[in-house]
Amino acid sequence: MFPPPEENRFVTPAPHRLAAPPVSRRAIPRKTAARWWRPVAVVAVAAAITAAIVHRGPVREHLPDFGAIEDTSARKAAFIDHLAPLARLVNAEQTALRAQLLALDEDLAAGRAPDPGLLALARATAVRHGLEPAEDIDRVLLARLITRVDIVPPSLTLAQAAAESGWGTSRFARKGNNLFGLRCHRPGCGIVPAKRAPGARFEVAVYPDPTAAVRAYVHNLNTHPRYRALRRTRAELRANGQPVTGPALAHGLVRYSEIGSDYVTLVRSIIADNNLTRFDE
User: Fold this and answer.
1) CA nearest 129: which of 11, 232, 45?
2) Could you count the other beta carbons within 10 Å of the beta carbon of residue 180?
């Protein structure tokens, strides 16, 4: 459907300089050392995730050939079975990162000296999520960042992947693991659409494996200005102790596709017809 978002527009790889300064491990008690190095490890993991998001190299792992499954119900079931674990994996990464940011916020709220590793993590994460880098991480910035670092319900991920890739059978899915119609804008960065409008220069992004595509999709929803309403609804659900589900967030996709509100209706119908809310946490 060629959604309009320019994914990865705000992505900046986390440079190695964000790691914590060298410290003698002998001089640090065991508990303190653990508290220091855990967030630093998360920085390294976050950097790896960013590298996967911005990767535009050769495909290393293809999706299964869903088109070879003639029975429609069987094809859909195979697609869901393959993609649901990937959605859960990426959500687990988001949850782990979010927990570190919440821990930092608790320290600041309590007036405790913030952990240097958590501060480094927050700065790196703010840059990757399109927020202005700041030397002083305060609770205002953290609140904005925590709104962006959160899960996308698996039902929404599965429904959009189905809609955008024809249940994994599109050329972009088969050749580039692109399940979500995400674009890139550097010549040679992806696959040129056969029906691209005259004068348009975008390409359809290529990912090394399906997991990288899911990461890019989640990052896109968590950062692009078009999806502020989705993030706002998610934050409100969190604040009210309500579950974060695909149907509840689907209205925030009205600008994902050129067909607008009809796209929201389509996504919700795919969720309902295939009982995808059973995957939501």
Assistant:
1) 11
2) 28
**Burial of 38 per CB tally in 10 Å (0-12, 13-18, 19+):** middle
Angle between helices 210-223 and 72-109 (to 10 degrees): 50
Give pLDDT, residue 61.
83
DSSP designation for 188 = T
Q: Residue 16 carries which DSSP code?
A: G
What residue ranges of the chain have pLDDT lower than 50?
A: 1-56
* C-alpha to C-alpha distance for 258 and 80, rounded to whole angstroms: 25
Residue 243 burial (CB count, 10 A): 11
Q: Which residue has the tokens 């992004």?
A: 205
- Find out whether 8 and 264 touch, Cβ atoms under 8 Å: no
The domain limits of the chain are: 16-279
At residue 52, the pLDDT reads: 44
Q: Which helix (H) or strand (E) holds 191?
A: strand 190-191
C-alpha closest to that of 216 among 260, 263, 174, 184: 184
Beta bridge partners of 184: 203
CB-based contact 192:205 (threshold 8 Å): no
Classify 16-279 by CATH class: mainly alpha
Does residue 172 contact residue 1 with C-beta atoms inside 8 Å?
Answer: no
CA distances from 15 to 19, 35, 55, 123, 185 (A): 8, 22, 15, 11, 23
Contact 263, 254 (CB under 8 A): yes
d(CA 193, CA 195): 5
171, with CB counted inside 10 A (0-12, 13-18, 19+), is: middle
pLDDT in tens, 124-160: 999 999 998 667 889 999 999 999 999 999 999 999 9
